[in-house]
Amino acid sequence: MSFLKSGLALKSVPNYFPKSIPAKIGDDACNIDTPSLVVDLDAFEYNLKLLPNIVESISAKGQNIKIRPHYKSHKCPSISVLQHEIGGATGICCAKITEAESLVFGSQSSRAWDILITNQVASERKMERIYNVIKKLAENPQSAPLGVCVDDFFQISLLEKMLASTSFKLDVYIELNVGQERCGVNCPAEALEIAQRITSFTSFNFKGLLAYNGSNQHNRSHLERSETVMSSSFKGKIISCLDTFKENNIKCQIVTGGGTGSFPYEIQSGVFQEIQPVSLFISLLFRFRAHTSLWMLITIPTLLS
Ligand SMILES: Cc1ncc(COP(=O)(O)O)c(C=O)c1O
User: Fold this and answer.
1) pLDDT by residue (tens digit) across 19-43?
2) Ligand 1 and 120: CB distance under 6 A
3) Is residue 301 in contact with ligand 1, taking CB distance under 6 Å?
4) Quick one: which of 286, 142, 126 has its CA closest to 219?
């Protein structure tokens, strides 16, 4: 029986941001408050089960790619739970602290979350909120430590200050600029300097590299997306960083990245251990970019009245 029929979706409306429910299953479309997410749960279930199969079919023997879907597109804790329970996810990415807060303090707060915030937190004001998320995660012994991304020393110094007189641990990833030109370190030497600083602070666990190129998700042809991932400024740069870390005895545990349009190529590149796609669950456009057997899932109707 699909989870649509079990009513799971309605039971788990987040109470972290109390709101009235915009619609009930079975309501007429014209009675739905907008904007709303309208989910075809059968299609969603189908897509959830399909992703691990796609990943397995693309992976080389023994490659063991993990799935850490992004939360930014649905921001719904109960969807994340289903991504874990039937979609093969072993962790989740958040774009902002607010998203992490909605997971750890929201309707699914008892769950052992493994969260990576994929953008840099560069403001002193936000450190208290990061701290509260770390503390809440630590209350559940099954939870992983929070993961954060850095690409400069200022962010690291804020995190060091926040953790200075605590016993909490933080997983730290270095973002590598692989063509998005928005953030991330640009070269192996820069990555090394930052990794050395991270590994010198005992409350940090240096996890590895985040290498995500958002614009590549939107390149139209498969060839273009594949060539971008395999290029010297993408895969080549990751390999140079890994070599540099190795030469300097720095252990890189994981390379993570890859969205809906490109994740097959990140897997095939052989340098990634984890992928982060999410839009494939929700976008018709991505159905054609990613895998034609995926179904359209969610619409966001904007009804004018
Ligand atoms: C770091 C990161 N990973 C993964 C994703 C998800 O990618 P997609 O929406 O192409 O599945 C995003 C989306 O912007 C992202 O910023």
Assistant:
1) 677 777 788 877 877 777 777 777 7
2) no
3) no
4) 286
